[in-house]
């Protein structure tokens, strides 16, 4: 491996964390802060965040979205485009995922293409797994690769105290496994696209 290729292989992958909930009083910041500390412990990722509570995108889709929507997209789209991999942090609403997330996905297409996606889900007794199962189908349509393992936090309000997990063993193991898989797929897909552009 020459010096240039070695430097590229050693460079951290850009990981975009998409915080899906935009509800008032949401629990998402607690889970997101915990997950960000897990990523910060690793040298193979550089984290960026898209928090949908801080993005104002109307649900009406238009070929000419207007200057306000274009300005919002100008804040979000480059972050998604630059990412080598994604983690979607989502609650489960009525056996599915938030409308804010579907709106974001539907406004982007090529940005997700041939990149890996992992999931951190939370909720009641199911821990958000039904939302994740539906998201796997959505991201398959985007030509993204969803990794097998993720983080599932059932009965999430009872799992945290003062922003810390009462028993971090399982979630931390899940986060490590998911991030390991994202690192492998992120590097493999990035290298592959450098040799041969992905064709739909």
Automatic annotation (TrEMBL):
One GO CC term, this protein: cytosol
Pfam families with a match to the protein in the record: FMN_red
Question: Where in this chain does the record put each NADPH-dependent FMN reductase-like domain?
Answer: 15-155
Q: Any idea which GO molecular function terms this record carries?
A: FMN binding; oxidoreductase activity
Q: Which top-level group of life is the source organism from?
A: Bacteria
Which InterPro entries does this chain map to?
A: Flavoprotein-like_sf, FMN_Rdtase-like_dom, NAD(P)H-dep_reductase
Q: Identify the PANTHER family for this entry.
A: CHROMATE REDUCTASE, NAD(P)H-DEPENDENT FMN REDUCTASE LOT6
UniProt-recorded name of the protein: FMN reductase
Species the sequence originates in: Streptomyces filamentosus
């Amino acid at each position: 491996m020459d010096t240039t290729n070695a430097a590229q292989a050693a460079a951290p992958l850009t990981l975009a964390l998409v915080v899906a909930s935009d509800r008032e009083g949401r629990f998402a910041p607690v889970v997101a802060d915990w997950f960000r500390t897990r990523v910060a412990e690793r040298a193979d990722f550089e984290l960026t965040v898209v928090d949908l509570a801080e993005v104002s995108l109307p649900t009406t889709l238009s070929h000419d979205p207007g200057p306000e929507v274009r300005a919002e997209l100008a804040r979000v789209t480059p972050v998604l485009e630059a990412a080598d991999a994604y983690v979607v942090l989502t609650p489960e609403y009525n056996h599915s995922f938030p409308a804010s997330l579907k709106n974001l996905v539907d406004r982007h297409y090529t940005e997700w293409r041939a990149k890996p996606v992992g999931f951190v889900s939370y909720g009641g007794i199911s821990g958000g797994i039904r939302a994740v199962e539906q998201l796997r189908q959505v991201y398959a349509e985007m030509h993204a690769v969803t990794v097998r393992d993720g983080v599932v936090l059932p009965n999430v309000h009872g799992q945290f105290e003062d922003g810390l997990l009462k028993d971090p063993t399982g979630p931390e193991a899940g986060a490590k496994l998911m991030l390991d898989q994202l690192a492998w797929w992120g590097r493999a897909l990035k290298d592959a696209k450098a040799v041969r552009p992905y064709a739909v």
